[in-house]
Design a protein that fits this description.
By secondary structure, the protein is an alpha/beta fold. It has helices at about 5-10, 10-20, 25-40, 50-60, 75-85, 100-115, 125-130, 155-165, 190-205, and strands spanning about 65-70, 90-95, 120-125, 145, 170-175, 210-215, 220-225. The protein has a 7-stranded mixed sheet with strand order 3-2-1-4-5-7-6, sandwiched between helices. A hairpin with a 5-residue loop joins strand 6 and strand 7. The structure holds S-adenosylmethionine.
Length: about 230
């Protein structure tokens, strides 16, 4: 959730964020991940506690144990997914930016030592690393894919997710409103390519013949879908 948007958030969203309590055992690591993203001046592109706990609880309800995340930043959301899957599960989080990946590795190591949670950081352009997913230890079929990377590549990420999930698996995408681009807001700042890709991803994930879908009107738009 962007800080810019935070200032414009409807009061009910502020209220939700105030009410959202992170899991007590995760609080200190979440604070550290947030601190790292503050240092990088990137906290505005990280999920809110409310959004992350909504997705984490969705993963729990769907009994996900293996999660691939595209777009790690400093590990804030990956911590929530690792908490949701528990010590017997695992999260692979893909990150292109070397500084972000380094901070995320620090968080992942601490999560392993203090909570026995497994977060594997895969550094590089996700379009490349996904093509070599087996080489990065990612299982051929995973229980959940969380898409939060390069907006113009969401279609490619979805292709990978469809090839590596099965009935009952979960596919989630953030920023699906594309700052208004998908409904034609001329001030969205989204490129024509991003708009075309996001509209197509939304149409696929909202197809009731293929998915049980939930598009949540957060500030950024959050789409959760379970494969039929
Ligand atoms: C919106 S942020 C992720 C926020 C994170 N999920 C959270 O909630 O804390 C997007 C991240 O994707 C990364 N990214 C952008 N393009 C990418 C690509 N092509 N491959 C992998 N990561 C990418 C960015 O460097 C950034 O760290």
């Amino acid at each position: 959730m962007r800080q810019v948007v935070m200032r414009e958030l409807r009061p009910q969203m502020n209220y939700l964020e105030e009410l959202s309590q992170p899991p007590a055992e995760l609080k200190s690591l979440l604070d550290q991940a947030r601190h790292f993203s503050d240092e990088l001046n990137k906290s505005q592109i990280s999920l809110s506690h409310h959004e992350a706990s909504l997705v984490a609880n969705f993963l729990k309800l769907n009994k996900a144990k293996t999660v691939v995340e595209i777009g790690a930043l400093t590990g804030f959301s990956a911590l929530y997914w690792a908490w949701a899957v528990g010590p017997e599960g695992a999260v692979w989080t893909l990150e292109k930016d070397a500084a972000h990946a380094q901070k995320c590795r620090e968080i992942a190591e601490k999560a392993k030592v203090s909570l026995n949670l497994s977060i594997h950081v895969v550094e590089g352009d996700a379009e490349v690393t996904l093509n070599a997913s087996a080489g990065h230890g990612i299982p051929k079929t995973v229980d959940a894919v969380f898409i939060d990377g390069n907006k113009a590549a969401y279609g490619k990420y979805l292709d990978w997710a469809l090839a590596h999930t099965q009935s009952g698996s979960v596919i989630i995408a953030d920023n699906v409103f594309l700052w208004g681009g998908v409904w034609g807001d001329q001030n969205s700042g989204a490129s024509p390519k991003q708009i075309e890709v996001m509209k197509s991803v939304n149409q696929i994930l909202m197809d009731p013949n293929q998915f049980l879908s939930f598009m949540i009107p957060t500030a950024e738009g959050l789409l959760l879908a379970v494969r039929k």
